[in-house]
Amino acid sequence: MSDELFARVDSNHKPDPWGEYCAAATFTFDLDANELWRAAAALDPEFARLDYRGDYGPEVGVPRLVELFEKYDVNCTFFVPGKVAEEWPEAVKFLHEHGHEIAHHGYTHVSPREMSAEREATEFRRTIEVVEDLTGEPPVGYRTVGGMRDQTLDLVEDAGMLYDASWQDTDMPYLREDRDLVEIPNDYLLDDFVYWGFNMGPTFEFQSGISPHGPVFDTWEAEFDGIRERGRLFVLTMHPQIVGRASRVDALESLLQRMLSTGDTWVTTCAELARYWRDRYD
Where is the NodB homology domain (predicted)? Predict the structure, then answer.
């Protein structure tokens, strides 16, 4: 058994890991905006003409989501590519001013595996600078847009970050054995793009149509109930240009109400989760 697997197994069996709470949850958003469509153009050039579709995220989705979570005094984590932050600085400032965490999501929406080590390092540093210029704070967490190079986590650690949120290996945080980082895993089951990532043409190679809202939110609520029953961590991954549609925000509010109504689930940001986990178990 590898050291990393030992770390995950140990994390899975800690007594009362959440202190006064039964479980924990975090709402995360990848603010990919236009960069999602530009990256897809590498697979099909026709996607390049659709980058305007990404405007919906920062222009409509972000204000709508901020309004929702402000109503319940809940802060979220927004993973933002550096180029998106450069092109939509007011959206990033708006999120930060309303208490939401701004985290690192690369510079473009190109996978680190598709670029040289030099380019990755340069773009990684650039995103840190952009976020710090806009918020006054460097990002403390990272989520890859897809895949990693061997050096990716080195860059995260060397930047003094607290956590990575890219792996999909468990449903609890854990202290990585290979880096001085907390890992906050996610899963496609709890990702809105899986259900609603759709384009009429060209199509995404994995799209399966636009799923009805009801079954999706029923799935997410059932997963939350199972997570809460077992004392685990619920990580929801969403995109403002997808979940920011009016009816989806309404359904998201119902899910949020359900979670808060338990009174025993800690709903917080990835940064706060990572700080808690490090302070308690490091």
Answer: 48-267
Its pTM stands at 0.94
Domains, the chain, ordered by start: 21-281 (3.20.20.370)
Question: pLDDT per position in the chain (282 positions), as tens?
Answer: 455 554 555 556 677 899 999 999 999 999 999 998 888 777 778 877 777 888 999 999 999 999 999 999 999 999 999 999 999 999 999 999 999 999 999 999 999 999 999 999 999 999 999 999 999 999 999 999 999 999 999 999 999 999 999 999 999 999 999 999 999 999 999 999 999 988 777 877 777 788 999 999 999 999 999 999 999 999 999 999 999 999 999 999 999 999 999 999 999 999 999 999 999 998
DSSP 17: T
**Strand, helix or coil for residue 103:** strand
> How buried is 152 (Cβ within 10 angstroms: 0-12 exposed, 13-18 middle, 19+ buried)?
buried
Rounded to 10 degrees, the C-alpha dihedral 268/274/277/282 comes to -170
